[in-house]
Amino acid sequence: VEFPAVLLNTSTGEIESEFHTYVQPQEHPILSEFCTELTGITQNQVDEGVPLNICLSQFLKWIQKIQKEKKIIFSSDIPSHSTSEARPCTFVTWTDWDLGVCLQYECKRKQLRKPDILNSWIDLKATYRAFYNRKPKGLNGALQDLGMAFAGREHSGLDDSRNTARLAWRLICDGCVLKVTKSLDK
């Protein structure tokens, strides 16, 4: 019901751009009380949202705009667009769930083409576990372990994205080299 993303500059730690939209549920248009309480998303917000195919199209437009403006490339682009000033970019998620399960099956079910750039990412939870040798209790727990407070509302997609970026930056500052942990075969 929500599709957020933030662009983190891994040289400065600054969030340079954000994408956010609510996705209109098609099969079950009425949100459950559980969903509303967990995420803070209202029925009105999803009613005014867009279907997933439109959301993915808007997301790709956002990606293409920042690719041009900031000269970023994704690993799937490297053979065709490789230039010296291009800056590598990849997706970072907290677990494989969002891109590896949720979006993957939703696109399959709705017979939508999932953008290829969403087929590989860094699972920050797995990276965190390996780097700090600690098992975090969720994103909030990982931040707390490092003396950082969760900013915003937990389970709000945009706030989760911003906090995932903050955590990724902390890992980088602590010397972690972020590497893709998951790639789906085409």
From TrEMBL:
<dbReference type="InterPro" id="IPR012337">
    <property type="entry name" value="RNaseH-like_sf"/>
</dbReference>
<dbReference type="Pfam" id="PF00929">
    <property type="entry name" value="RNase_T"/>
</dbReference>
<keyword id="KW-0863">Zinc-finger</keyword>
<keyword id="KW-0378">Hydrolase</keyword>
<keyword id="KW-0479">Metal-binding</keyword>
<comment type="similarity">
    <text>Belongs to the ERI2 family.</text>
</comment>
<dbReference type="InterPro" id="IPR013520">
    <property type="entry name" value="Ribonucl_H"/>
</dbReference>
<dbReference type="GO" id="GO:0000175">
    <property type="term" value="F:3'-5'-RNA exonuclease activity"/>
</dbReference>
<dbReference type="InterPro" id="IPR051274">
    <property type="entry name" value="3-5_Exoribonuclease"/>
</dbReference>
<keyword id="KW-0540">Nuclease</keyword>
<dbReference type="InterPro" id="IPR036397">
    <property type="entry name" value="RNaseH_sf"/>
</dbReference>
<protein>
    <recommendedName>
        <fullName>ERI1 exoribonuclease 2</fullName>
    </recommendedName>
</protein>
<keyword id="KW-0460">Magnesium</keyword>
<keyword id="KW-0862">Zinc</keyword>
<feature type="domain" description="Exonuclease">
    <location>
        <begin position="1"/>
        <end position="177"/>
    </location>
</feature>
<dbReference type="InterPro" id="IPR047201">
    <property type="entry name" value="ERI-1_3'hExo-like"/>
</dbReference>
<dbReference type="GO" id="GO:0003676">
    <property type="term" value="F:nucleic acid binding"/>
</dbReference>
<dbReference type="GO" id="GO:0008270">
    <property type="term" value="F:zinc ion binding"/>
</dbReference>
<keyword id="KW-0269">Exonuclease</keyword>
